[in-house]
Amino acid sequence: MHIANASVLDLKRRISEPLVIAIDGPAASGKGTLARRLADYFHLPHLDTGLTYRAVAHMLIDKGWSLDDEAHAIEAARQVDLANLNKHALSAHRVGEAASRVAIIPELRRILVEKQRAFARNPAGAVLDGRDIGTVVCPDADVKLYVTASAEVRAMRRLRDIENRGGSAQLAGILADIRKRDERDTGRADSPLRPAADAHLLDTSEMSIEAAFQAARGIVDDTLAKRNAS
Ligand code: DC
After folding, report:
1. What is the chain's pLDDT, residue by residue, as a tens digit (230 residues)?
2. pTM greater than 0.70
3. Which is nearest to 28 in space by CA: 162, 158, 159?
4. 7 C-alpha to ligand 1 centroid (Å)
5. Is the CB of 53 under 6 A from ligand 1?
6. CA of 53 to the centre of ligand 1 (A)
7. Can you tell me the distance from the alpha carbon of 129 to that of 180, in angstroms, rounded to the nearest whole number?
8. Cα(230) to centroid(ligand 1), Å
9. Ligand 1 in contact with 49 (CB < 6 A)?
């Protein structure tokens, strides 16, 4: 069943203050799809913060600079322009891997987090997804979701994506990559991936995208109802 976007009139009635929705979760958890659906439904701008780390990694690869070259990585972070993130160019697997490696640099994170916070200050609010949105970027977000799924399910979904685009890959290789990325993203010292204490956990291992969206929409609607009642 498809749920239409909430009408603008209905939303204006329910959302009189900014609504910031923070979505975190591991690679291939489906958080991006969920974030886009929620942004669309609640008429809010959406930022996939992973693209900002990918943009830095892409610039380093493009210029032939090492991923361990902190000075150049920081310079690249300063140049990231949120209005100019080319999702298509940044979607390559190796760019995601490289992004996960440069994302351990604290000064680089500080620069990108500032840009992400500026985005979240949009007067109507915003939906941001990433690894540290509920814990670091927007600790005061109105709604925090932590979207996860087992590594096996995430690997299977990624394999299906690749096959749907006409490619081929081995499930075992994808699963190993996902585990390695999880380890790096949860194990780093600065802003590791973890659910905020007040995040709603959404395990989508056995859920369709539609079911996950409806569950998330219900959580946001409950928050709005409580906010409006107080
Ligand atoms: O969500 P993604 O696969 O596009 O993210 C790529 C990498 O960027 C991820 O492995 C770690 C890093 N990242 C981060 O450290 N913090 C974020 N808020 C988003 C992404």
Report:
1. 455 677 777 777 677 789 999 999 999 999 999 999 999 999 999 999 999 999 999 999 999 999 999 999 999 999 999 999 999 999 998 999 999 999 999 999 999 999 999 999 999 999 999 999 999 999 999 999 999 999 999 999 999 989 998 999 999 999 999 999 999 999 999 999 999 999 999 999 999 999 999 999 999 999 999 988 87
2. yes
3. 158
4. 32
5. yes
6. 6
7. 20
8. 36
9. yes
